[in-house]
Amino acid sequence: MRSLPPALIYKYLTRRSYCTLTLILLFIIYYEINVSNIKNVYEVDYTIKVSNISKIDNRTNKPAREDLDDLRYVLLWSDSEQPPFKDFGTGRSVFEEKNCSWTNCYVTNDRNILSDYTEFDAVVFNGPSLSYLRSTNNMPRRRSSHQKYIFFSIESAANYPVCTDHWNGYFNWTWSYRLDSDIVWSYFVITNASGHVIAPNREVRWEKDPGLDYVKSLGEDLKARLRGKRKAVAWYVSNCDTASLREVLAKDLQEYMRIFQLRLVTFGECGRQYCPLFAMEQCLEDMGKDYFFYFAFENALSVDYVTEKVLHALNHDTVPVVFGGANYSRFLPPDSYIDAATLGPKKVVEKMAAAIKNREEYERYFWWRGGVGGMYRVRAANIHPETDPVCSLCAALNSPATRNISIYKEFDRWWTPETSCQDVIKSHLH
User: Fold this and answer.
1) Sequence-distant (≥ 6) Cβ neighbours of residue 38 within 8 angstroms
2) Higher pLDDT, 332 or 11
3) Of 100, 243, 279, 423, which sees the most CB atoms within 10 A?
């Protein structure tokens, strides 16, 4: 075989190397162009996704983009005009106005504010609306595993019972007056001298030293106010026909009161004395000056159902005569009230008559206000962020509890006492 001349071999190799280098350079250029295009496409897609959320008309009161990642979205599925939903407004304002510790919760009844209602962190259902929502088929058809479906009610279970198993396994959390709710809606709290909340609570340890005379340490202004009272009992009531039959109890009490020449004065729609709603606070102030006792009778007998009626008495230097389905030792200091449900009409009137006759005995009902600075204090729950039930919702949605899986498998048994459903046609209820 004849060998090629060296010059020809060099020329061949040079030409081949040139082609190889050219191919390599073309590949590099092609790669850079495509990577750049891929990057640009990704950035464009990302920008589109962001712009879909962030470009929002300010007039809609929808959240700004910088807040989205940290917001907890709360959808009010029920009619937002129902109390207390109507006081929540839209957005974060209700939490900001209350100075809540957590204000990153966004409340709305707009199911379309997000791309899908399954993206909301919590969906709240108002208990009294359950029957209507179900009968009109106005319920969510999908839900996400991260969502908390919350049953909410400040109305008693006796007045709005759940008598079917339809809602079993439906709700993740409960938000109500019941002390075993996930979020408790309290009307008032009792704090100790240090400001720590003592009650209401399922387990309460009241401090009262039997060896101390707390009455002696009551302020002179309070004593003078208590000794200026001249009338027996006041009652503010506008619902005259109730599930608890409190109106029947009031009549029975009056029968015994006549024996001791004590008089009940009833204000409101069910009485002869008129007090308009806008003047309620002034009426309560006048009551505190004149009356020894106040009937704090609930309209229904449900577990833990204690409303602001008790606060009307305690905030105005009057002893409450309570009637309800609650264990009042979880709510009020011992010996600060008279429990009509446990004593019965005759003993209730006897205790009232004895206290009115003996002023020192009457003052003992206020022992919890004695001591340096007072042993205990009472206030409305919603005047302080730490105990405000609305603030509690946002705090719960920011707590580790959101990562827990919870479900009320037997919701009907938890919410409704069996006696509430005995005489009810189930098909007409929730």
Assistant:
1) none
2) 332
3) 100
What pLDDT score does 371 carry?
Answer: 75
- The single-letter DSSP state of residue 91 is B
Q: What is the number of other CB atoms lying within 10 angstroms of the CB of residue 66?
A: 8
Tokens 């809606």 belong to residue = 185
Number of domains in the chain: 3
CA distance 216 to 241: 43
**Alpha carbons 358 and 66: distance in angstroms, whole number:** 66
Q: Sign of torsion, CA 221 224 226 229?
A: negative
In a domain, 192, yes or no: yes
Q: Would you give the DSSP letter of residue 250?
A: H
What are the phi and psi torsion angles at 255 (to 5°)? -60, -45
Answer whether 325's CB lies under 8 Å from 315's CB. Answer: no
Helices H / strands E in the chain, number of each: 13, 14
Q: Round to whole Å and give the CA distance between 397 and 78.
A: 19
193 and 178 belong to one structural domain: no
What are the C-alpha distances in Å from 274 to residues 106, 247, 283, 292? 41, 18, 9, 20
Neighbour-count burial of 257, counting CB atoms closer than 10 A to its CB (0-12 exposed, 13-18 middle, 19+ buried) = buried
| pLDDT per position as a tens digit, 174-229 | 999 999 999 999 999 999 999 999 999 999 999 988 888 899 999 999 999 999 99
Give the list of residues 6+ apart from residue 404 with CB closer than 8 angstroms, or none.
none
One-letter amino acid of 397: L
Q: Which H/E stretch holds residue 173?
A: strand 173-176
Q: Is residue 359 part of a domain?
A: yes
Which tokens sit at 416? 């409704």
Q: Do 221 and 311 have their domain in common? A: yes
Q: CA nearest 324: which of 309, 346, 302?
A: 302
Q: Which two tokens stand for residue 164?
A: 């079917």
**211 and 171 in one domain?**
no
Beta bridge partners of 322: 296, 339
**Angle in degrees, 0-180, between the axes of helices 345-357 and 246-259, rounded to the nearest 10:** 50
Show the tokens assigned to 63. 């959240």
- Beta-bridge partners for 264: 233
Number of Cβ atoms within 10 Å of the Cβ of 251: 12
DSSP 377: E
Contact 212, 187 (CB under 8 A): no
How many Cβ atoms are within 10 Å of 273's Cβ, its own excluded?
12
CATH code at 238? 3.40.50.11660
